Amino acid sequence: MKTRLWGLSFICMIVFGCNSGNNEKEDVVYETVRDTASLKNADSALTVINHPSLWRVESQGSSQNEKLKQPADSSIRSYSFAQVISALNEDYPDVQLQLKNISHDTMYVSIPNSNRLTQEMGNTGAYNYLATAVYNLTELKNVKFVNFSFTPGDHAEPGVFSRSDFKRLR
After folding, report:
1. Vertex 108: Cα angle to 107 and 114 (nearest 5)
2. Is 67 helix (H, G, I), strand (E, B) or coil?
3. Per residue in 108-150, pLDDT tens?
4. C-alpha torsion sign, points 119, 120, 123, 128
5. Host H or E run for residue 100
6. Phi, psi of 107 (to 5 degrees)
7. CB atoms near residue 158 (< 10 Å)
8. Residue 56 — φ and ψ, nearest 5°?
9. Of 28, 66, 122, 170, which residue is the least packed, with the fewest Cβ within 10 Å?
10. Extents of the domains making up the chain
């Protein structure tokens, strides 16, 4: 008799223990993926890219009223040289910077295919690109100058630049 009572008590504890807790029902939604293309699109929509907030040239009405806009946060200072160059290359896919080296307070970069910068962006576009690159790269610790190496063209020439070269945009 005692054994049955213990057995019945044990079964009751298990049943009540499994049913206790939150009594709210959860709605489960099942989504059917019809083909691999929609699966790829769904996955890409969930991809998060950590991209630093960059200095940007913004138009204030005309090309004579363009101003450099400071990043919304200071996260760029915590990025590596390669990460900032990668972010610039993403923003300007036709002008790809490559880090050559860093010496003292100068970063040396090259633009192997500079035709877009020097021949197709115009004077203002090339000037704004160089300003954007210089301001972002000089946000990095100990970098005060950027030495650009590329084939000169009608709208841009290589050389050493600092923030003071772009006072017109401030």
Report:
1. 130
2. strand
3. 999 999 999 999 999 999 999 999 999 999 999 999 999 999 9
4. negative
5. strand 98-103
6. -100, 130
7. 18
8. -140, 150
9. 28
10. 72-169
**Rounded to whole angstroms, how far apart are CA atoms 114 and 152?**
8
Amino acid at 69: K
Using CA atoms, how far residue 28 sits from 25, 31, 35, in Å, is 9, 10, 22
Chain centre distance of CA 128: 19
Summarised one tens digit per residue, pLDDT across range 1-24 is 555 555 556 565 665 555 555 554
Closest CA to 148 of 110, 104, 117: 110
Rounded Cα distance, 148 and 165, in Å: 13
Class level of CATH domain 72-169: alpha beta
